[in-house]
Amino acid sequence: MPDLLLELRSEEIPARMQRKAAGELKKLLTDALVEAGLTYEGAREYWTPRRLTLDIRGLNTRSADLREERKGPRTDANEKAIEGFLRGAGLTSIDQAHVHSDPKKGDFYVAHLVKPGRAAEEIIAEVMPGIIRNFPWPKSMRSGAASARPGALRWVRPLQSIICLFGPENEETQVVAFDVDGIAASNVTYGHRFHAPEAITVRRFADYIEKLEKAKVVLDADRRREIIATDAANIAFANGLELVEDEALLDEVSGLVEWPQVLMGAFEEDYLAIPPEIIRLTIKTNQKCFVTRPAGGENPSDDLALSNKFILVANIEAKDGGREIVHGNGKVVRARLSDARHFWTRDQGDLPDLETLQASAEKFDLNLKKPLDQRMAKLDALNVTFHAKLGTEGERVQRIRALAAELAKVTNADPTLVDRAVVLSKADLRTEAVGEFPELQGIMGMKYALLQGEHPSVATAIGDHRKPQGPSDQVPTDPVAVTVALADKLDTLVGFWAIDEKPTGSKDPYALRRAALGVVRILLERGVRLPLSSVVEDLDLLSFFHDRLKVYLRDLGARHDLIDAVLAASPSSGPSGHLLLAGEKREQGAAAGTSSPRRGEGGAHAPGEGGGLSANDDLLMVARRVEALTAFITSEEGQNLLAGTKRATQLLAAEEKKGTEVAASVDPSLLTLDAEKALHAAVTQASTEASDAIASEDFRAAMEALSKLRGPIDRFFADVLVNDENQAVRANRLALLGLIRAATGTVADFSKISG
Question: Long-range CB contacts (< 8 A, 24+ apart) of 636-643?
Fold first, then answer.
């Protein structure tokens, strides 16, 4: 089967666009080929800073013939109808049509049409110009003399050449002829722009990749990445150091070079007095270089102690061994570090306009003798906007402050330390270090807090209040930090929900999914018992939390149906207590009319009254129920109980749907058979034991109590006819099934469990 080699070589492709662009090219072309009737065995994309390449294997030489039957008029139709049929079918004579018979409709004409398949080369030449012209670059440009013409080609950077070769693996390949804006497809490419600028003629992919390698181009991005990572680690090791790994930077750098050359540079040790986070970001952001640390640390990715050596990746195999490249990079690094040291020093000094900050200082109980307090006062005095509909940063801090005071009662954190941490949590937004590197928000606040003598828990909370930022980020551990992090995220979620800025599809501009998952992780991983309904007024937002809980539990291996079954169970009996409803203070920082309805004032539901939600708002308890249910339902005993319980609940639901009378409660005097008497006694006892176990949050014991129903349920269905002719007996037996549903429903809705 023939193969197709395609290369689109341009002046430059930004690193952040390369992987996605290569994937888009593969999808666009393979979709077009399949739509045209071709099939292929496999396709792989490649990318470098200057080229997108596709290697498509086992492509058909031509598309299959298409056969179609087109129904025409009856054989006794008028001439105009027959002529229209002939034109539409492309026939020149009615003799070319076939006559089909239908018992009801009589005889009618049918055209048997055959559309011959086309050569693969013809199809490729037809679809490629459109793919190139309409390629979905995030940003593109016109270039050259042709750019002045209407409809001129737009490409991310000037497109320089196209390779398009088609043919069998062991025979000669042919150039698929087409052109785009005067750039004709050929079998010629070029290697490294400095080391091998001469033209290279290629025949097929194996030949292409081999010749590129000789021309100082490593086509495979994963291999370039591996070369950089290995060489960087080896150079660091040879100098008694360890590389501080950075996967994102490694991906970016591998997209900046075609022939990676790893070198080591250095800067003066005096700069190590700057916080390591600033050093690392300065070198990474400005020079795309890696930092190193002294060897022997417990965690190679730990950057708490850096060395003055950095790793850079060049795209040139320099004749002087890279000395000039290292020297040039070193000059820039030192200049940037000098700027960083300036920011670091200025942030520890006094602001020039302290007299204008007194009102803000009094509002937040700030000490204007302390630099970080000054920055918080400045943030408030400037009325820096958090969101147009949610007020200023200062107003937001006041909301978080009030919420955190209530949350501290749940987390058992020191309320004085919590308040101080909240007040200073956003202060570093006015520091020069964070102004230069927004990624350091929180981290710099923590460092400045320690410098001015804040309690360690306060400093930690400032540094951790935005955590966790992602699945690999750790959850805060200090009770003060846990409290502030929860308050910060809950204020964000409730606020944006109130102004109807909810995530839609793949769009989540305010990272609300991440914030909700952060709340879930904090509650579960730190064992925090928080009744969310005391904070969250909107059942839609409670549902959003449930969705994030499902994501978290599924990642831990929990079954989808078991999570849904627990969430659909009756309200938990866990602890509750009044917390500050976010809406009670929202008017201080939000525009008028943005607060959501208060519970009981419209839009909210009592447990089980719509919205698809029960009052399962204690996520920690939900998770523990899922854990216990998972352990039980995977056992033979659990499977048997599930089968019996489902039979009971399904029968009851079917009768309820038909309007059959169900007694309000079980009348023991109407229980005449031993099996129904035994079931009633077993359900009564199991319900009591399960309720007591749930009250003490021993969900395994609750499941064990319910498991005792297995035998009585099986015997009941074997010996008892539920739909007895006596209406009172039937209603009583259905009520007995209702007791089974109620008993198991205290843990989960068994009807939602599959299997």
Answer: 637/707, 637/710, 638/703, 638/707, 639/755, 640/710, 640/714, 641/706, 641/707, 641/709, 641/710, 641/713, 642/750, 642/753, 642/755
Nearest to 744 by CA among 591, 564, 570: 570
Residues 331 and 285 in one domain: yes
Rounded Cα gap, residues 399 and 394, in angstroms: 9
Q: Based on the fold, state whether residues 304 and 360 are members of the same structural domain.
A: no
Last residue of a domain, one of 171, 199, 214: 214
Residue 627 lies in a domain: no
CA atoms within 13 A on the CB side of 223: 11
For range 219-233, the mean pLDDT? 97
How many structural domains are present in the chain?
Answer: 5
Query: Domain containing 85: what range?
Result: 66-115
Q: For residue 602, what pLDDT is reported?
A: 33
For tokens 């030192």, name the residue.
Answer: 334
The two structure tokens encoding residue 348:
């520890």
* ∠ Cα 299 300 303 (to 5°): 90
Q: Write out pLDDT tens, residues 424-481.
A: 999 999 999 999 999 999 999 999 999 999 999 999 999 999 999 988 899 999 999 9
Highest mean pLDDT among 252-261, 468-477, 539-548, 734-743: 252-261
Half-sphere exposure (Cβ direction) of 81: Cα atoms closer than 13 Å: 10
**Which of 586, 619, 652 is a domain's end point?**
619
